[in-house]
């Protein structure tokens, strides 16, 4: 079995600039700075010079792409990993069949034939999808351990870097990152051991609750978004490259935003919204007009429950009216305590929503 791309992964740190990561693509060093040879020119150009504005770099890069490469960026495909292939793992008696893996054992190279609601589907192996179909947008239908996922992503990067035109997939090289955050709390058919968690978190330790709604000494962990901590890491990498982070949160509940909003340069709200509609707003094709239908709580302090099971913010009072009943010592200079407030001073209360000219 050949080497995994993870074993050849290299990172070059620019002083006061972005990290440049590569598996096999060459890196240009000039005047003490590192640039990834994205366009294969072998020199610092408008395409790979991270000091230039994002729009200028994108416009220059589009000029180098073929029509087929451009069209491929409009499509997204369900995909699979080598360790979790669609093709049955069992071989036939004559030794044929079974999954077809790349030399690293990471990518699934088997062709896939199947039926969907849209008709017959035929997809190539992973390397063909990237090198010949120029696909760069995949939905991974697996929930692998972090190590397996890292190997898979690094192997994808290696294959992409072998193409004539490398289309970046590393947040550290992105000018913009769009994150779709869809938390989930509770269960349909079973009670949770504690209160319904509204924090966007992963592995948060909270108290169990007894039958009377009072906190117990015993604890358990709550996860409303797997790997929620990656949001801050991605944002840091993009911001280091002078990029921008746009985050959409799917508000099935009145989520706490303390672990998300500070990472975003722009924040949008969805309510199980059709994704193309969200992207129309994010990319400026349609101006946002919506307003929040509820008030978002600031943090755990405004939701805490005492030893008698009494919440500091009355449960029978809607969010937009809770400030009337909050302790004075919790209120700010504007007499508000309950709603989340961002660094610009906006309160995320019912009916809040900015426009492009604000």
Please characterize this protein's 3D structure.
The protein is α/β, with parallel strands linked by helices and 358 residues long. 16% of the residues lie in helices and 18% in strands. The protein contains six helices and 13 strands. The protein has helices at 54-62, 67-72, 126-131, 146-161, 230-240, 275-282, and strands at 10-13, 19-22, 27-30, 33-36, 77-79, 112-116, 119-123, 138-140, 176-181, 204-209, 215-222, 244-250, 266-270. It has a three-stranded parallel beta sheet. It has a two-stranded antiparallel sheet with strand order 1-2. A hairpin with a 5-residue loop joins strand 10 and strand 11 (215-222). The radius of gyration is 24 Å and the shape is globular. The mean pLDDT is 84.
Strand order of the largest sheet: 9-12-13
How far apart lie the N and C ends?
Answer: 56 Å
Rg = 24 Å
Silhouette: globular
pLDDT < 50 stretches: none
The profile of the biggest β sheet is: 3 strands, parallel
Instruction: Indicate the structural class.
Output: alpha/beta
The helix count comes to 6
